[in-house]
Write a structure and sequence with these properties.
With about 375 residues, this protein is α/β, with parallel strands linked by helices. The protein starts with 14 loop residues before the first helix and ends with a helix. The chain has two domains: about 325 residues, 3-Layer(aba) Sandwich (Rossmann fold); about 45 residues. A hairpin with a 2-residue loop joins strand 4 and strand 5. Helix 2 packs across helix 3, helix 2 packs antiparallel against helix 12 and helix 2 runs parallel beside helix 13. It is built from 14 helices and seven strands. A five-stranded parallel beta sheet has the order 1-2-3-7-6, sandwiched between helices. Strands 4-5 form a two-stranded antiparallel sheet.
């Protein structure tokens, strides 16, 4: 397992990863002090949004919430490792990925409230809407990657043109048949896709040790897909691994599989009780590996962060949580007719007929309301 930052923040050199992190990417590389502080702020912000979302679900404002508490480094690192033109295909827990791609948290919460079909334009933000069915997005990601090949935007040698797909799923989803099928197609056609698994140790109540007798990273090797296993609570290790993998895929060298070893601090979802199957000693052990504290300790060792910056991040995170709170509490239910608007990219005659039938159906209730109001008025006059 590749680790660059230990739990106490100590930095370990790694020739291959350091060449990518400290290389000429933007303003002096991906691991400059300024960018490190940015990753720290991102993780603090998304954790605050995550905690607030859980609170909103308990208040009855969301139907469900799948927390990513503890997985911030695995997501912020992977999100920032991608380039603007890359296409990301997440599952339902990638809140840090969404943040790194410029998707506001309130859009995620609207989905879990059940009033949005996804909340953002996947073409504009190059990020697919959340997928709920485990592993179902893996074949879609490969299909999209194969389309990139046919569009001629893979292996051109032009950094602004070459494009890859990042397919994200959890350790539980890696056991699904769709992921195996995706491996088959990706390997057969050398598709420019990076499969990225956040191994958070538990597929609801099933531990990884039951799902696989070997590290998950080895699963892809039977297809001839190279893989790497990194410390998912180490934002630099994730950043380096995913950037290297995506660079390789963009260059036309085929798929790569990355396993990020992390931990789901919260329950699987707000409908789950993790205390029924997970020992508290395990939770305490992983709490010592907290990804946010790890990066803060590293920055402190570098002398690149102070109490004022930490406090400012905490204040911004609190403000974000309050914005989410007021936004969700103030939301009105959308017009149900809107469900017909985005069924297809272009108008469809069958959908139009169904829309008209729905409007006629709803009109019956409007007439009933008029009758009820008329009866009320007569009663008042009597």
């Amino acid at each position: 397992m590749v680790q660059l930052l230990a739990a106490d923040g100590t930095r370990t050199p790694h020739a291959e990863f350091d060449a990518v992190l400290d290389g000429p990417d933007g303003a002096g590389g991906l691991a400059t002090p300024e960018r490190l502080r940015g990753y720290y702020r991102d993780m603090v912000m998304i954790r605050a949004a995550d905690v607030e979302a859980t609170s909103l679900q308990r208040q009855g404002q969301l139907g469900l919430w799948a927390s990513a508490l503890g997985q911030e480094a695995a997501q912020i690192g992977a999100g920032h490792a991608s380039r603007e033109q890359d296409y990301l295909v997440p599952t339902y827990r990638e809140h840090g990925i969404a943040w790194a791609r410029g998707i506001e948290p309130w859009r995620l919460l609207e989905s879990f409230r059940g009033v949005s079909h996804g909340g953002w334009d996947p073409n504009e933000l190059r990020t697919h809407p959340y997928m709920i069915v485990l592993g179902s997005q893996a074949p879609h990601a490969v299909g999209y990657a194969m389309g990139l090949q046919r569009d001629g935007v893979v292996g051109t040698g032009q950094p602004e043109t070459d494009t890859a797909v990042l397919a994200l799923f959890g350790d539980g989803a890696s056991s699904e048949g769709e992921v195996s099928e995706a491996f088959t197609f990706a390997a057969s056609f050398q598709a420019p896709v990076v499969f990225y698994t956040q191994n958070n140790q538990w597929a609801i109540s099933v531990p990884t040790s039951v799902q696989s007798r070997v590290p998950l990273a080895q699963r892809s090797r039977g297809w001839g897909i190279p893989s790497v296993r990194v410390d998912g609570n180490d934002v630099l290790a994730v950043l380096g691994a995913v950037r290297i993998a995506l660079d390789s895929a963009r260059a036309g060298k085929g798929p790569v599989f990355v396993e990020a070893l992390t931990y789901r601090m919260a329950a699987h979802t707000t409908s789950d009780d993790a205390s029924r199957y997970r020992p508290s000693s395990e939770e305490e052990e992983w709490a010592q590996k907290d990804p946010i504290l790890r990066l803060r300790r590293h920055l402190e060792q570098l002398g690149e962060i102070d109490e004022a910056y930490i406090a400012r991040c905490d204040e911004e995170a609190h403000d974000l949580a309050m914005q989410l709170h007021h936004h969700i509490h103030g939301m009105e239910d959308p017009d149900p007719v809107g469900m017909f608007t985005h069924a297809y990219a272009e108008p469809h005659p069958i959908v139009e007929v169904e829309r008209e039938q729905y409007l006629e159906y709803m009109a019956q209730f409007e007439n009933d309301d008029d009758i009820d109001k008329s009866a009320e008025q007569k009663g008042e006059r009597a």
